[in-house]
Specification:
By secondary structure, this protein is an all-alpha fold. The protein has one domain. It has 3 helices and no strands. It is globular and about 45 Å long. It is found in: Cell membrane. Belongs to the UPF0410 family. It comes from Streptomyces olivochromogenes.
């Protein structure tokens, strides 16, 4: 992976994290940096899952890949919020 690919993955991860946070209902007690980190991780894992299912490279916008990434980010934000609440 080239440096431009890593930078674009980070930028997309930020967007994915924010969208994932918006999907989770209620107030989340985690900071924006945690949200961004969850989004970046969800973007990388979601890309891997989409590639495994063969939906990573389609003509036009990769909607299925985006949905997988946003879903993973939502799960990550909700899980991290629950861990923070228990402390």
């Amino acid at each position: 992976m080239e440096i431009s690919g890593i930078i674009s993955a980070i930028l997309i991860g930020i967007i994915i994290g924010v969208l994932g946070r918006l999907v989770v209902p209620g107030r989340q007690r985690i900071g924006i940096l945690w949200t961004i980190l969850v989004g970046i991780v969800a973007a990388f894992i979601g890309s891997g899952i989409a590639a495994a299912f063969g939906v990573a490279n389609t003509k036009g916008v990769d909607w299925i890949e985006w949905l997988i990434q946003i879903g993973l980010a939502a799960v990550g934000v909700a899980a991290l919020d629950r861990v923070k609440v228990r402390r």
